[in-house]
Amino acid sequence: MRFLGFLARRVVGIVAVMIGVSVITFAISHVIPADPAVAALGDHATADQIAAFRAEYHLDRPLAEQYLTYVGGLLHGDLYPPACGRPSFAAAFPTSSFAFSR
After folding, report:
1. What confidence category does residue 83 fall into, taking pLDDT thresholds of 50, 70 and 90?
2. CA-angle at 68, arms to 10 and 34, nearest 5°
3. CA distance 50 to 40
4. CA atoms of 37 and 46, how far apart (whole Å)
5. Contact 18/26 with Cβ under 8 angstroms?
6. Which residues contact 21 (CB under 8 A, 6 or more apart)?
7. What mean pLDDT do residues 13-33 have?
8. What is the 3-state secondary structure (H, E, C) of 12-68?
9. Under a CB-based contact definition with an 8 Å cutoff, are residues 85 and 78 in contact?
10. Residue 76 in contact with residue 90, Cβ under 8 Å?
11. Which of 41, 72, 81, 84 has its CA at a distance of 20 to 30 angstroms from the CA of residue 25?
12. CA pair distance 7, 16, nearest whole angstrom
């Protein structure tokens, strides 16, 4: 019985740390002074291109919805920001998607 209590405290602690880290990394990515759409597309991007980029990557949504999208991406293995042009973890390692699909 003592072990189950110890294990439960550890699991709760790990979940709390993971939530805290996700909030901190999300906050850091949003307090930088640069606009992510302009940074990804360059200075010569048109207003329509910037608006399309913001819509595609949900940057035009409320902050809470952006965070939930961010956490959902993390849970599905999307470890990289989409603007980097790199594939998601599941796309880069197809066997991982097979292993996690069960």
Report:
1. very low
2. 110
3. 9
4. 11
5. no
6. none
7. 91
8. HHHHHHHHHHHHHHHHHHHHCCCCHHHHHHCCCCCHHHHHHHHHHCCCCCCHHHHHH
9. no
10. yes
11. 41
12. 14
CA distance 11 to 92: 29
C-alpha R_g of the chain: 18
Q: What is the dihedral of CA 61, 46, 37, 79, to 10 degrees?
A: 100
Q: Which residues are CB-neighbours of 89 under 8 A, at least 6 positions away?
A: 77, 78, 79, 80, 96
User: What's the pTM?
Assistant: 0.65
Paired tokens of 68: 């939930």
The amino acid at residue 30 is H
* Encoded tokens for 3: 């072990």
